[in-house]
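Incident log, structure service

09:12 report received: a user says their structure output differs between two submissions of the same chain.
09:20 pulled the input from the user's history:
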Amino acid sequence: MAIAAMTKVMIVSHRSEAAELLESLQQQGTCEILNADEAMVSKDWPELGAGAERPRDLEELVSRLARSISFLENYAKPSKGLAAVLSPRAVIDPQAYKKVVGDKALLDVVTESERTAAAIERLGSEIDNLQSRLEELRPWARLEIPVEELGQLDKAVCLTGLIPTQHFAQVEEQIEQVGAAIENVGMANNKNTCVIVCLSQTAEEVHKLLRSAEFESFSFAGMTGTVAAAIEQTQAKLSETRAMLNEQQGLASELSKNLLNQQILHDHYSNLLKREQTRASCPATEQTVVLEGWVKKKDYDRLEKVVSSFKASSLHKAEPAEGEEVPVEIENTNYIRPFEVVTRLYGMPHRLSIDPTVFLAPFFMIFFGLCLTDAGYGLLMVGIFVWMLRKIQGDKKFVWMMLACSVLTVVAGALTGGWFGDAVQQFVPALGPVRMKMMWFDPLENPMMFFMLSLGLGYIQILTGLVIACIHNIRRGEYAAAVFNQLTWLVLLNCVAVLIFVGGEIGRILGYVALVPAAMILLFSERQGSVAGRLGMGFYNLFSAIFYMGDVLSYLRLMALGMVTAGMAMATNVIAKIAMDVPYGIGIVLAVFILVGGHVFNMAFSALSAFVHTLRLQYAEFFPKFFDGGGRVFEPLSKEYRHISIESSTKQGVY
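09:34 re-ran on a clean worker, output below:
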């Protein structure tokens, strides 16, 4: 429920066992290692160089494996169903994993994949060229003269090309006037393929005439014989090339049976590359490698145990340098941890700030539930997310968070009488008494209740933010900030709230009391600069009371979204009930279709809106009251798997 305390560490290891030590550290996944540019030891001793040369061979291998996987995925049998989307990684037994990574012969598949991919690409390009050539030659199929003879005239010039159909008649007439001849051979894309013969002395005039008619010259360069023969040869070559392509694609399909092995190798060598890149970037002497980094304070003993198992390595605590950026990691209990999704999406808190997760969690669940206010939708979502928890791989925090929000949706829906809108009243009125017993109020009959509930919850969250900031400032010894930046506002806002909503003698008295914190805000909320500047900023800060009113009014979106969800659900029920009047049983089918489709759409759309707007309330209204972001994320050296999941690691918990 706080920002994890960090300890800076210095590990000095002999070069002979540095790689093995890094492997153990990566396996444990608790220590962040700084590179030579980040490490303070490099600044104190500039003569320290990088630990090793850049592992270019390993980088190339990982890149080749990635290309091989991308190629083979196109020929592998695709996984089917939604479960495959939620669980895209194959679960591998540790023994099978060790066997694959130890079999160097499997790397030959990479070479075969590259050769096959190159052949398929070459043959595909060749097929495209042949098809293009066929398309060019087909309009000339009626040309019976061997094409090489077209250029063998002594006193005449023979031109071949295409003339747009709309210009052909005019060109034909003009060609005859200059003593030339034109023959229409065929058609291609609204253009006439033509052979034009003219005397050499009139060639220039014919060229000029053809240019004005948008003539496109066509060349038979490199060809011999008739066009029909060339078409036949090209078709034969095309068939042969297609057969070769099919053969290579069949080989690719066979190679795709090694896809899983390729994925295992890619993840293995990616982790190895990450480790080697870390070793290469660390400061080092001729005989030692210096690993400077950070570890959570609670994990220091575990790190010490790993390092102590190496005879030529030692671990020491180090003092952070002045101004050095300390990485940030947040820690929460299992019940709160799913809501870290919201915090991490916004950005890590500053190391001297507060982890907001535990404070936002209850508000997030309640607000999400109020935005939906439908117990039927909530139950459906509970079922969906429980199923997803059983099927999805990897980090499940988001699913757990949505499951908790769905449970609150059921509660909010029951309290407001929403069960798929007014489905109880429309279709099963016998359950009406049960619905009424659970219901607190009906938002559509008593919207002011929903109005005041939304404003009240918003007011409570904003005050909570101020209280958090006040307590945090007191703990840090910043008493002036706690009094003039938060405590004064807490008193002022509560006094004004009582004055407006309670009134009477108590309200009048607290109205006068409110003048005291108002004066303190005016005089002391800005405590630096000249007197005039401090008073000016104090006046602006006091005027900011109107912004608090705007913040509270923002929470009316809870009521708006809740009532829109209920309205859409009711409209779906009404349309379905009308459809039931269609005779011959068709009405029942239509009604079922409308109910299922309408409610699924309304649930999905409303859930998305509820998530987005609840998120916005945390970021725009709640966090600014106390949250100070900008922390650097703690990134320990650890093993990561993109394509596979090691069986033992899948049993370490759902978070």
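09:41 both user submissions now match this output. Likely a transient worker issue. Closing.
09:42 reviewer note: The first strand starts at residue 2 and ends at 3. The chain has four domains: 1-51+282-329, 53-127+229-277, 145-225, 337-625.
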